[in-house]
Amino acid sequence: MIALTKMLTGKATVSKHLTYKGEGITQEFKEISQKPIPVVVWNSTLKCNLKCVHCYANAGRKVNELTTEEAKAMIDDLASMKVPVLLFSGGEPLLRDDLFELAEYAVRRGVPCSLSTNGTLITEEVAERLKEAGFSYVGVSIDGLKEVNDRFRGVRGAFDRAFEGLINAKNAGIMTGIRFTVTKYNLKDVPAVIDLLAENDIPRFCLYHLVPSGRADFSQDISNEERRELINWLIEKAIELHESGYVTEILTVDNPADGVYLHLWLKERGEEEKAREVLEFLKLRGSDNSGKRIACVDAEGFIHPNQFWWDYSCGNVREAPLSEVWLNPKDELLIKLREKTRYLRGRCGKCKFKEWCGGFRLRALRAGDLWGDDPSCYLRDDEIL
Predict the structure, then answer these.
(1) Dist CA 162 CA 117 (whole Å)
(2) With 60 as the cut, is the pLDDT of residue 29 above it?
(3) CATH number of residue 170's parent domain
(4) How many domains does the chain contain in total?
(5) What is the pLDDT of residues 69-90, one digit of tens each?
(6) By percentage, how much of the chain surpasses pLDDT 70?
(7) 157 is in which domain, residue-wise?
(8) What global pTM score does this model have?
(9) Is 270 exposed, middle or buried (0-12, 13-18, 19+ CB in 10 A)?
């Protein structure tokens, strides 16, 4: 996750509380960044009321989900690990009957909770229940304005209900934001969606780069020329929003090259001190943290290196606690992901920023070589070699 607004302006909203734990790069942030304690994405259910064309979980299938008691046992284990956050995802997590009970249980055990939702089920009453359960953040998936979003989501009216749910959560006093997965079908809607958030004082816009998984594939992605132009625009938009007094912060997810590009962008403009600060951040958190500081547990309890890597499992919480699998890794892939610079090939292997970027490994695997080039790297040879 590359916090563009934070690194450009020194100001953050949601990131200040969830990532940095205060202003600047705190000592706590540094210490956490050195440990393989993961943010845990739990795809708590595969039930869903939408039919998204790019769903990485291929939701809608019936599976043998963890029971309430099995989920509480997992939460106890996460509490013992002191994970920084448990992200309830899906499918649509609000379709899980015990969601509020489990969130309340996790918060009591000292595990901060966030919700990843399509937002369409968040009425005013549900928003209040989310607040009472202790959710510190609600992220709503919106992938364009009404026409584009509804086509993506496969249900007419999804945009209106999702945006209403976002506002309901905000009005209940919960930190909110949206997740926008950019594709060739919705690229043109990015500016309008950000403006809509800014006008409604929504504090976070997370742009996700597409990861081929589930129902998503490379054919839906934008070109690297478009990607570079988009990141350049987002950088300038982050500065514009800050200077205009808006609270919305901009972040990008699942392409560590964005952090390197920001560093180079600042250097090119003579902002050496800010460029150095960005590089310091990248040294701590800039690379793909799959298998180290990001873990996924799917609805059936299988453990994955990230939430898109469901075709590989390194264990199951029904058989061994995540702490055992994660903190004493015997799985070859987990071990290699934590020292990935030893295995990188091609441009990624030669890149002078490989220690702080290293590409997004799963995307490289989907392109044919786990340790080869990330096909979504838009940086030029003269910038990185």
Answers:
(1) 9
(2) no
(3) 3.20.20.70
(4) 1
(5) 999 999 999 999 999 999 999 9
(6) 95
(7) 2-328
(8) 0.93
(9) exposed
